[in-house]
Specification:
By secondary structure, the protein is α+β, with helices and mostly antiparallel strands. It has helices at 2-17, 20-38, 45-81, 86-89, 95-128, 131-134, 136-145, 161-173, 182-197, 310-338, 341-364, 379-399, 407-412, 419-447; strands at residues 149-153, 199-200, 205-211, 221-228, 239-244, 252-255, 263-268, 278-285, 293-295, 301-308. The strands form two sheets. Strands 1, 2, 4, 7, 9 and 10 form a six-stranded antiparallel beta sheet that branches. Strands 3-8-5-6 form a four-stranded antiparallel beta sheet, with no helix packed on it. α1 (2-17) crosses α5 (95-128), α8 (161-173) packs across α9 and α10 (310-338) packs across α11.
């Protein structure tokens, strides 16, 4: 272990000598204040704070991601090309210790830089949200809705699979689709029913159920929602919200309209939550015109309960960024252990771009993958579609464990980033993917000739 720590120290000193640290510090010191004092958001103080949190931390993550990937690719490959690694391999150290030492050095540097960036953001937020600057009422509102860590609870999903299967069976009996098409159409039928069950037609309502914890801390309980009408106009739609229990769903009713495309909040009365573990929320569409309100099955509604403090929430968001940087560092070092610097960087960036393209396809196709060939296309297009779908599903399967809700979006909305997500991402990104890259990279590095001049 001493060898690993020594190599990590060498990597840190090399980074300082290459002026990389100074460049990153200057970049972070420029970006964070620039966003803090130029961002306007929606023109309100709360909007400015949300923009500051999202874009300053996002910019820091982007800068560190690019620097980490480039430095990781160069950590081994450039030392081999410049014959500097001879000083290490001539000593009694294993190749896996070289790989791990480089990774620990980069992770230590990233931890220090993220700590400085987080401290700078927290300091600027404290300055910009002072009561003397924006008023006591606005300052309290920001600390309650943004500089907070409210616990997020999603409604129980509707069970629509049975209804989807029944609908497809009727379609087969009526000869509208063939038996062979049932499996392919099932996912689409479930998606359509999810949209239908999460909508409220004029003069009708939809009821969601939320499971509550045994104890709810003191503080406001908020229902956050965002609906859409599917129409061009953005005229607000009158809605009657009712809260209660599944047995008594209308303990209290509150009138508050839905503005299509706008996220709104509704503070719920605490008495409606007393003595129950299941909260019922009904949205009744009271519009006089023929319009339907649609809520996204995921993220359309959520319950926000009082949680922890902002400082610990910011720390968890920074930890998630640090974990993602650890995976990038592992990818870059492994690529640099096999290829020269330009090839290593190109290979690592290509894998990341392939993953991003997969995410894009997953979004635009609702998880169904790319569809290229038509029914009357030739064999070549069908073969190409089969190959494309296979590649798509491989990247989707490999990247699915790395998917998580955006920490930056949640922290800017005062929503808690749970420790369970941090632990899960650490286990998957570092304990699985980075470990695989470590084993592969160290094995390939041990087979590479590095001790003789080229």
């Amino acid at each position: 272990m001493r060898s690993v720590i020594a190599i990590a120290g060498i990597a840190l000193r090399a980074a300082v000598r290459s002026r990389m640290v100074l460049t990153l510090l200057l970049a972070l010191a420029t970006v964070v204040p620039a966003i803090a004092f130029t961002a306007r958001g929606d023109g309100t103080a709360m909007g400015q704070v949300q923009v500051l949190l999202t874009y300053s931390l996002g910019a820091c993550g982007m800068i560190l991601s690019l620097a980490t990937l480039w430095s990781a690719c160069a950590a081994v490959s450039l030392e081999i090309e410049n014959h500097q690694i001879h000083l290490l391999v001539a000593k009694p150290v294993s190749r896996w210790q070289i790989w791990l030492g480089k990774w620990v050095g980069l992770m230590t540097l990233n931890a220090l830089l993220l700590l400085l960036a987080g401290a700078a953001v927290a300091g600027i937020l404290h300055y910009k949200t002072r009561p003397i600057l924006i008023g006591a009422e606005e300052s309290a509102r920001i600390r309650e809705n943004v500089l907070n860590a409210r616990r997020e609870i999603a409604p129980q999903p509707f069970d629509v699979r049975g209804a989807a299967v029944a609908a497809l069976r009727r379609a087969v009996n009526e000869n509208r689709i063939s038996v062979q098409e049932v499996e392919a159409e099932l996912a689409n039928a479930i998606r359509i029913l999810n949209i239908t069950t999460n909508s409220a037609h004029r003069g009708a309502g939809t009821v969601w159920t939320f499971e509550l914890p045994a104890h709810i801390p003191s503080g406001p309980v908020v229902l956050e929602y965002m609906g859409d009408s599917g129409t061009v106009d953005r005229e607000e739609i009158p809605v009657l919200w009712s809260v209660g229990t599944p047995a008594n769903p209308r303990v209290r009713s509150i009138e508050q309209p839905v503005v299509p495309g706008a996220r709104r909040t509704l503070e719920l009365p605490r008495e409606a939550l007393a003595g129950t573990r299941a909260l019922s929320v009904e949205c009744f569409n009271a519009a006089s015109r023929d319009v339907t309100i649609f809520f996204k099955p995921e993220g359309g509604l959520r319950l926000l309960l009082p949680g922890g403090g902002f400082a610990s929430n910011l720390a968890r968001a920074l930890l998630l960024q640090w974990i993602s940087l650890g995976l990038l560092a592992a990818l870059g070092i492994s690529a640099g252990s096999v290829f020269s610097m330009p090839v290593a960087a190109l290979s690592a960036i290509s894998l990341i771009l392939a993953r991003q393209v997969t995410l894009f396809l997953n979004t635009v196709t609702e998880g169904g993958g790319p569809s290229i060939a038509e029914r009357d296309s030739g064999w070549f297009m069908h073969a190409f579609e089969t190959f494309s779908r296979a590649v798509y599903h491989v990247f989707t399967s490999l990247g699915r464990p790395l998917e998580s809700a955006s920490a930056l979006e949640r922290i800017s909305q005062g929503v808690q980033v749970p420790w369970s997500e941090v632990a899960r991402m650490a286990g998957v990104s570092i304990g699985v993917f980075a470990l695989i890259l470590f084993v592969v990279g160290a094995a390939l590095l041990s087979r590479r000739e590095v001790a003789l001049p080229e």
